[in-house]
Amino acid sequence: MMQAVRLVLLVGVIVPIGSAFAQTSKEPPADAPPPIPTLHCDFKSMNSCMAGQPCAADEKIAGMSLPLKVTVDFENSMVGSVDEDGYARADKFDTVAKSADQLIIHGIDGAFGWQLTVHDNSDAASISLMAADASIVGFGTCRNK
Length: 145
Prior knowledge:
Elements: H1 2-22, E1 39-50, E2 56-57, E3 68-73, E4 78-82, E5 88-92, E6 95-99, E7 102-109, E8 112-119, E9 124-131, E10 134-143
């Protein structure tokens, strides 16, 4: 008898909790900010530096054709470009932060860490890719088309 009472009490607690979860809306809250539009970036100036060697600029960087075109898809957390053979290349980004009127996006791709910084009040942007003994830095623009 005591087990039956416990079971009734337990069901009386679980059913309202379960129905509360079932009624939870899957819609985003009404005050959610609009998604950030996709950005299209062109980096016209690039500099590459390797430890113990002079830095190289622009077309002197092996495998780099300018302008470097990069697409930033915030909805899918992806950054895309084209590799030196003309094939599409995409990377997931790890974090987006807003600081000092700039949007800062960064991620890791193999041995490289990378960061893309876009100014809020202009189309100015920079990109950097870093490894322990090398870095590439580019300057250009990003726009939402």
